[in-house]
Known about the structure:
Blueprint: H1 57-60, E1 74-78, E2 90-91, H2 93-98, E3 108-112, E4 122-124, E5 127-128, H3 130-138, E6 142-144
Parallel strand pairs: 1-3, 2-4, 3-5, 4-6
Amino acid sequence: MYLNTIKPSIGSKKNRKRLGRGMGSTDGKTCGxxxxxxxxxxxxxxxxxxxxxxxxxxxxxPKVGFRSSLKYHKFSVRLDALERAQIDDKVDIxxxxxxxxxxxxxxxxxxxxxxxxxxxxxxxxxxxxxNARLKFEAKGGVxxx
Length: 145
């Protein structure tokens, strides 16, 4: 085998489309662009969603829904993450923020039933899911509202 005898396999390289080469080529004269109009011109372009000046679909449809600003302040925490923020057998939102379990702008925290806790302590100002409450109180934890 020599370098000058190497060729790509048959069918792997396709010839480019030769436009404007006579009527026998099926792409002669107008080169497959049809007659006149924006798409027949050089530089004929329109942006996505453009409907020829008609009000586009995305602007005709009514606006629905909204984003709640309250959602920004609510966070959920796994049950086993509470032990990281435990100070003097107490856990509250300030302790969770101090130990970077939740971000500083948190206002409400709900404890969900993920993992397990090793020792009993007092949870102050936290919301609990039903399963998390059962696990927490089974270990002897106290929930203060």
